[in-house]
Design brief:
The protein is an alpha/beta fold and 245 residues long. It is built from nine helices and ten strands.
Amino acid sequence: MKHDQLIYGIRAVIEAINANQPINKIFAQKGLKGELFKELESSARKNGISLSYVPVEKLNRLTRNNHQGVVAQISPVQFHDFGALVEQVLNKEETPLFLMLDGVSDVRNFGAIIRTAECSGVHGIIIPKSGAAPITEDTVKTSAGAVFNVPIAKVDHLKDAVFYLQSSGIVVTGATEKADEDIYGVDFSQPTAIVMGSEDKGISPSTLNILDHRAKLPLMGKIGSLNVSVACGVFLYEVVRQRKK
């Protein structure tokens, strides 16, 4: 049963998971029990879908229908298969440009990043299944509809995606203030993937350690960092600048 990009009811949500519906998040009533609910929890875990336990009042605000203690949010876009997306891009007569987001969790930042990615010619955005911002109405609005034009792939582990890109000849560069090199010393004319970290923690150390390059933005003021969507825009347009030479 669907209503405004929501699915409600335990069995309906399980069926949606099994049908590979693009579920952003599942909200479950605190204290919910039973074999059917255990099946839902197991399916959500196996498919990397975020599940939050909330008071019943939260579910009642989401829908007035008989939710049976479970409401799922559906993404307005279909996600792409990561491996197929990479192969598709590699077969183009263009220099690949991927964007990887490591824990960007604010939907408006996500939307702004997607908009810039579309404008700067990014071939695909890669996000982890867990911990990433969902694609909501706010994401769509902030992206100015660009979310429908840029392929987005979800992966189980971002590190594995980095290794896959590297093995495919893609040079992966992370945006981090911990870098010794600044953005203008990196060669973006070659096949490239740029990794942007979360708003508060940046790129996770385990991912940072396996990247080909780390690069920072020169900051002239007293503030130690830029908003992630702004920093992403600077990185992407340095790629554009170098490739237009």
